[in-house]
Amino acid sequence: MERKDLMYIDRRLGLVLGLIAMTALVLVGCGRGGGVDSGQGDGGNQEKSYTIKLSHVVTDQTPKGLAAKKFAELLEQKSDGRIKVDVFPNSELLGDAEEMQAIQKGSVQMLAPTTSKFTTISKNMQVLDLPFIFDNYDDFKKITAKKTPVGKILYQNKELASKNIKVLALWPDGFKQLASNKPIRTPEDLKGQKIRVQPADVLKTMFNTWGAQPTSIDFAELYTALEQGVVEGHENPYSVIYGSKASEVQKYITESSHGTNVSVAAINADFFEELPKDLQEDVVSAAEEASVYGSKIALQQNTKGKKQIQEAGTTEIIELSPEQRQAFKDEVVPKVWDEYSDVIGKDVIEYLKEQQGSGGDVVKY
Length: 365
Description:
By secondary structure, the chain is α/β, with parallel strands linked by helices. 44% of the residues lie in helices and 18% in strands.
């Protein structure tokens, strides 16, 4: 073979090898959807790194905010850095009204909204908004366990699954108290008051039963709404009341512990399914460990929040006697529960009735 023929073959071989190398680089650099950062080596998904954007609407020092930070820390450790979690607190990325659409579309990979936010998709998610279903954190853990009728609504929800949402764990924010510019010691004291509530029908029904005028506004607007008199009060745990500075524009807080703020750690289902099995297990494990951590933090933070409000001296805290609290309960239980039995499920309501009074004393901060 002549020298010029050998040179021609060398050039063609070099061109082919170059194209193969370029193609390999392109394939490695391409991800399979939002949140995938990169790929390397011959391990496929086993070697890829991922980023989770986790958005929530409260400050990073609330129980939810601290649980989110703990989740990020745990997951990065468990995954050996293969999953990085960017947490966006205090509505920095999304407000109340934007969250549900964002997680369905994959604009964010994770959220931690309260259960009431999910009711536009699945009405029976209102179960945790029912009044007086928990008296303490032991009640909460027992009633929301995955195999209970309540747990099945939360973790095996077909309507959420159809909208590309998977529930990982529950992060309790604490028990809700009644904040107002008027002292509230009886249900009659609520009559005619404009109270900000989250967008769940059961919450509106509860306050209507007490004679109040419930209204839903974005949490980020709460301080201004209270300051300007758009609403006269709201319901939130002590930690949220203090953290949002709402206590600065509220004269009274009634320690009613009539309900719970429960945040739902939820993930975009498509993103979750793209993860290798070992990373899926890491995500679930980290979310569940953050729940245990969050429960402890909720008790600590709400105790601290109450003390900080008292020390500020601008807001009077009214501690109800057992009889006074029972008067609020008697007006809505089982009346409101039964009103929503067709929505939530008759078997679930019966289960909740059976659990009444089985968990010990009412939580005290």
